Amino acid sequence: MDASTQSTDTTGSFTAAAWDRIAPIMAEIEVLPLLQRLSDGTLPPEVFRHYILQDALYLKHYARCLAIVAAKAPDNAQVLRFLGSAQKAITVEQGLHAGFLTQFGITSADVTSAEPSPAGFAYTNFLLATAYHSSYAVALSSILPCFWIYWHVGEAIKNRPVIEGNAFQAWINTYGDPQFAAGAREVIALTDIAARTASPVERAQMTDVFVRASQYEWMFWDSAWRLETWPV
């Protein structure tokens, strides 16, 4: 995958520096077996089923994080812009989940009764705690990796040759879609706006949570590949 930001001109910005910081993490994400085999259509159905079910659980909590972050925005313009970009992402992902849950025989009862994996539980609790207890800028920085990394991965996979009959093509199309890209660009821009008025201490916290959330992104995909469950 191309390790560029694909995208948006963040030269010299907070987000450009943050993206550079996670280069080693992105290198590991790009070679994850789950993503490699999703790309070529050879991912075992039981692995994808585990992943998409965990992702559905994640999205319920992530949506609440987005709402908390929006409520902390310093002015109405940022509230509305953030809510708009968040709505785009949630709408896109909900549509994707609905199709795959049906395709892979996952019922609403399955989703209701499912337990988050250890990695998923840790990730969502990290995001919720950060959203509740941190400033707008720090909270915003913590939710950015989910937007940006999925966009990066989706764009990279989308540019590979299409595999006829790939059961996961809708996933590739979703995260390589211009609508998802627009939402990600907007959150990147909002994060840079917030960083401009952040104190040095706050900017350091923004970087810390950005890196940690990126690590959790790797953990989430890796745990799905391993069909992670609670050990006891």
TrEMBL record:
Its EC number is 3.5.99.2. Keywords: Hydrolase, Thiamine biosynthesis. Signal peptide: none annotated. It comes from the Bacteria. The keyword Hydrolase applies. Residues 19-226 form the Thiaminase-2/PQQC domain. InterPro entries: Haem_Oase-like_multi-hlx, Thiaminase-2/PQQC, Thiaminase_II, Thiamine_Salvage_TenA. It catalyses: 4-amino-5-aminomethyl-2-methylpyrimidine + H2O = 4-amino-5-hydroxymethyl-2-methylpyrimidine + NH4(+); thiamine + H2O = 5-(2-hydroxyethyl)-4-methylthiazole + 4-amino-5-hydroxymethyl-2-methylpyrimidine + H(+). Pathway: Cofactor biosynthesis; thiamine diphosphate biosynthesis. Catalyzes an amino-pyrimidine hydrolysis reaction at the C5' of the pyrimidine moiety of thiamine compounds, a reaction that is part of a thiamine salvage pathway. Belongs to the TenA family. This is Aminopyrimidine aminohydrolase.
